[in-house]
Specification:
Blueprint lengths: L9 E4 L6 E2 L2 H10 L11 E6 L5 E5 L25 H31 L2 H8 L1
Bound molecules: zinc ion (ZN) (3 copies).
One zinc ion binds next to helix 1.
Amino acid sequence: MCKHILNAQVAIRAPCCKQWFDCAECHVESAQNSETPHQIKQTMEMVFACKKCKKVFRKDMETFEEADEFCPHCDNHFVLEAVEPKARLEVEGEDVRKDSRMLKDDRVKAKEQMSIWDDEGEAARLG
Ligand SMILES: [Zn+2]
Ligand SMILES: [Zn+2]
Ligand SMILES: [Zn+2]
């Protein structure tokens, strides 16, 4: 588990620096802070470590298919849609509440405006 992908089921071994990372983003951060900043090396043969059974396995990304989304040792489904940190969800929730408040305020404002603005004024504003 890392701060980028909360439901990471596997660790990946970066072929460039031979270190284990939970996601490519972790590699970016680690590589940036290292003495030899670099991009992750793209490879057709990825090495994974299952977080459930702790076993290591390789996958050929060129021939990766649906059946390869499971750990060959324990059948753990490791290709999942990433669950990103909760903060984002909380912000979304706040936004909804803000939105509903805003909608209410807008309706009140609209009513006030209608009593203030006559038809001509409203038309001029819209035009
Ligand atoms: Zn690397
Ligand atoms: Zn990460
Ligand atoms: Zn496994």
